[in-house]
Amino acid sequence: NEERSRRKRRSRWGGEESKVNIPGLPTAITSNMSKEQLDTYLLHMRLEEIGRKLRTGDYVPPEKERSSSPEPYYDSQGKRVNTREYRYRKKLEDERHRLIEEAVKRNPEYKPPADYKRPTKVQD
Amino acid sequence: PSGNGEMLPTTVLQLLNMVTQEELVDDEEYEDIVEDVREECSKFGHVVDMKIPRPGKGPDTGIGKIFVRFDTIEQAGAALRALAGRKFAERTVLTSYVPEETYFAEDF
């Protein structure tokens, strides 16, 4: 299948230079943790990552990683609603919402990030 | 082993925070992910086999995690150190080991 092989070879891996190192949040986990502890750690790591992306506006992936754009649609003022920025931001916000619900389920004392606004209605 | 200290290295590398449930549903995307992971991991040693649990295929546990079994503990360790903190589809990769018996029992 030619179309597939042409589309294929762009690895999802970022280069060595893309490595992140956040003090206090190790990425190679070699300490003894239960599965639950590891899953909780993972949850908070991802929340931290999403929070950083949303704060810095770093949520539109580089060209090669983008999926094809959906049909545009416009609001009553004729302004395009589903821009690339909007779609990627929305995707992250929706993921963050799911993760925060999970974090609260695991620990009712969990305090969501200050810039988090609970959506009044979540749509998929 | 006690609840503290370091875990014992094994031949099975666990890769975390790399894939979402939605990506695993799509067959083509799943195949791409398998290939990307195999290709990159092969730089650190011989990949014996791997497991990437998918939603709706078998027990719904370990979804979003990727398990790669190497020939030796040294190879798994090299991959664990090298891949930690790298990006995969704009997500930060976390790495860890899982015991071989967990891997074989698919008790993710």
What are its keywords?
heterodimer, A: 124 residues, 3 helices, B: 108 residues, 4 helices
SSE layout and pairings?
The complex is a heterodimer of chains A (124) and B (108).
Chain A: H1 2-8, H2 35-56, H3 84-106
Chain B: E1 12-16, H1 21-25, H2 27-41, E2 47-51, E3 66-70, H3 73-83, E4 87-88, E5 91-92, E6 94-98, H4 100-105
Antiparallel strand pairs in B: 1-3, 1-6, 2-3, 4-5
Tell me what the structure shows.
The complex is a heterodimer of chains A (124) and B (108). With 124 residues, chain A is mainly α. Chain A has a domain at 33-62 and 76-118. In chain A, 42% of the residues lie in helices and 0% in strands. Chain A is built from three helices and no strands. Chain A is globular and about 55 Å long. Chain A starts with a helix and ends in an 18-residue tail after the last helix. The model of chain A has no long low-confidence stretch (mean pLDDT 85). Chain B is of the alpha+beta class and 108 residues long. Chain B has one domain (12-105): Alpha-Beta Plaits, CATH 3.30.70. Chain B has helices at residues 21-25, 27-41, 73-83, 100-105, and strands spanning 12-16, 47-51, 66-70, 87-88, 91-92, 94-98. The longest helix of chain B has 15 residues, at 27-41. The mean pLDDT of chain B is 93. Classes of the chains: A mainly alpha (124), B alpha+beta (108). The A-B interface holds A 4, 8, 11-16, 18-21, 26-35, 38, 42, 45-46, 49, 61, 65, 95 and B 1-7, 9, 16-18, 20, 28, 32-33, 35-36, 39-40, 80-81, 84-97, 108.
